[in-house]
Structures are given as structure tokens and as C-alpha cells.
Amino acid sequence: MPADRAQTFAHPAFFDEPSRQQSFVFALLHGVSHGILIHADGGQLYCTCPFFPKPCWHALALEMLAAQQPEFFTPCEGDLPLWAQNLLTGKPATSLPDNAPTREAARVQRRHERLDRAERGMEDLEMWLNDTLRRGLVTIVYENPGALEMIASRMADASLTGLSRSLRLLAAIPPENLSWTESVVKCLSDICLAMHAFRRREHLSDEQAADLQTFLGIAIPKEKVLQTGERVDDAWAVVGKTEETLEKQLSVRRTWLLGGRTLRNAVLIDYAFGGAYEPSPAVGDIVQAPMAFYPSAFPLRAIPFQEWKILPKKVEKLPGFESIKAFSDAYALALGQNPWLGHFPATFPKLGFATGNNGNFYVYDEAGDALPLQCTEADGWRWVAMAGGRLVGVSGVWDGEKMRCMLVRNQI
Predict the structure, then answer these.
(1) Contact indicator for 47, 34 with CB cutoff of 8 Å
(2) Domains in the chain and their CATH numbers?
(3) In whole angstroms, what is the distance from residue 309 CA to residue 160 CA?
(4) What is the average per-residue pLDDT within 246-260?
(5) pTM above 0.90?
(6) Which of 19, 302, 307, 396 is least surrounded, with the fewest CB atoms within 10 Å of its CB?
């Protein structure tokens, strides 16, 4: 509905050159060449966009913003812009200024500024990492058990929350743990890659820069995603949910979606600080809603563009990869696009469940290829029992080492 969308976009971030002249307020829609004019006295709304019905949601949003934040609009004198005069007289708004070069320069500058603010923190991290690798990580940890916590705090001070969290989680692993070396090498390898990418940030595409920002912990505002993110409208199957404790009071929930028409994967990420999560659809539900995707070379994270509608039907069958080899090839391609991809969703129409001699659980395909599962013994036997020796539909998330099963459906 236009009114619902207008409520979402009644925000200063979505408008450029906001102006007020007598009984008129006008502005340009950020990122595109649309002009909006409001005649406050007459209650008339105009927009240069080609969309119908009128008034469009652009004009409704600007009207709401003018009522809520009148100080946002700069008073000006003289004649209205020619495009606004044309709107009032019913002429085509052919004289709307083309600010594309200016907007492109501003966009590049904003991208560089966001990353440039992290420079001091990255310099400190590089010095620490070079010293650590020279002396040996084990030596650093045993000589100074607080070394990882110290550099994690420095990253937090530099507003690099992603790096800070990774280092704090690393510090929480006891050196006696059998997976300690593997975890340390993986974490520091990702950090080294980020440092090299940071040095060459002027050569990164917008999508690659966004992935780097996300890994470093530089947040992209939701308003920006709603405004400029790729939009996909579909009926989305809720194929799984995962929860993870990040810190003592912080946990994260990921709701995994699969588009029924587009077969696009999407993930909704919610955080809880010492409390409960917001209500969300259950696994197996199907919801109808347009999604706005965060910028990424391999876009997964999304937010609903408007309130979703839960449809009366449920997930019955799961399409997806026909073999584990096809899944492996797709994962390799995705990792090449975003090397910091921590979670890779996958659905399979035909997989079986089995347990090995070592007590671990696996999924396997018709060719006999297998993937290890990350699960408790109780969950593993539950999946085996649900499959009953048959090949069933499975949705899961791959973390680079193991698959976490989320949903099983008998496809027969």
C-alpha cells in the first residue's frame, strides 16, 4: 500500500535538497532523478515519477516528513525550480537537474570515509599481528594471557566491533582445547585477508567494500538498505532458524528463507541483548513480503520492506541442490565472491542420514558423497529416525566444516 511505504520512507535520509518557499515544500528523491512538490495550503501533492496512482508514495512520504520535521526544510527565496513550475502547470518535468555525477562522487566519498575511519585501528592490529606471528602465537598467549583481550579492546575503541568480537571469542577458547590451533589459524587468516583488502580498498567494488565493512563491524544503516538495497518480492518459505550466543548478554537469531519463485536464499538477522527476540514466523511457514537485500558480492542478509503476510499453506517440498558435488561447487563460487562468508544456506530434495563408526552423523546423496553434521547425539538420531532410511528433503546451513540441519521434509 502506498501509505505503508510512505510511512517507511518519511525520513530525511531519503531526500536531497529539501527546501521551503512560502506555502510550497519540495525535494529530490535521493539516488534517482525524481522531484517532489507539496503545496501545503492547497493539500496538493506532485511528483515527476511515472508511477500511478497519484499521489505516489514519494509524495506521501515527503508530506509526512514535512509535518513531522519542518526544520528539515531550508527556507529559500526566488522562483520555484523549473521542474516544480512545470509540475504546477502540467508540463513535462524535462528540466529536472541531472545530478548523477555529483551523486556518484558523493557515494564514493561516503564509502571511503566509512573505511578510512578504521585506519588507525587497522594499523594497530597489523603491528600486533606481525609481532605475534614473528614471536609465535603460543608464546604470546603464555607470556601474556590477556594479549587477545587487549587487542580486542583496542578494536572496540576503533569501532571495529566485528574484529573485536572475533578476537574476544578467540580469547575465550582455552589453549588446551584440541581445536584451539585450528580456530586461531582460521580467525587470523580472515583478519589478514581483511587487512590486505583494507590496504587496497580503493580498488574494491561497492559490493566488496560492503562485505569488508560487515566483517570489520562497520554497520550499514537499515534506512540505507531500504532505500538502495536490491528488492525481491516473493513468497518465502521459512526453511530454518539458528540461534547463537555471541557474548555474555548478546545472542543472534538467523531466520533462513527460500523464495518460492526466485529460489533466492535470504537470512533475517535479529539480536537480543539479555532478553527475548521479537516474534517471527515459525519454521515451515510461508510468508509473502518484498525483501530489501544488504549490499554484498554474495547477498544473503535482507530485511522486510514491509510487514509480511503469513500464508495459510506450509512448506511441503524442498527444491535445491541435486547432489553434494553441486553444493560444493556453489559454495566454492560463493566463497570466491565473499571470502568472509560464515554461513552458506542450502536445500536438497534428496539426502539420507547416517551415523559413522566414530559416532558422528552425516548426510549423503545418491552418489554416495557425504557431509558431516553439526548436531547433538539426540538430534542426530532424531534426523535418522525421521528419514527412516529414505532420501528426504533437507535444509541446512554450512559453516565451512559441518552442516547444521534445520528442516526435514518427506518428498514423497
Answers:
(1) yes
(2) 2-98 (no CATH), 119-201 (no CATH), 230-314 (2.40.50), 324-409 (2.40.50)
(3) 36
(4) 88
(5) no
(6) 307
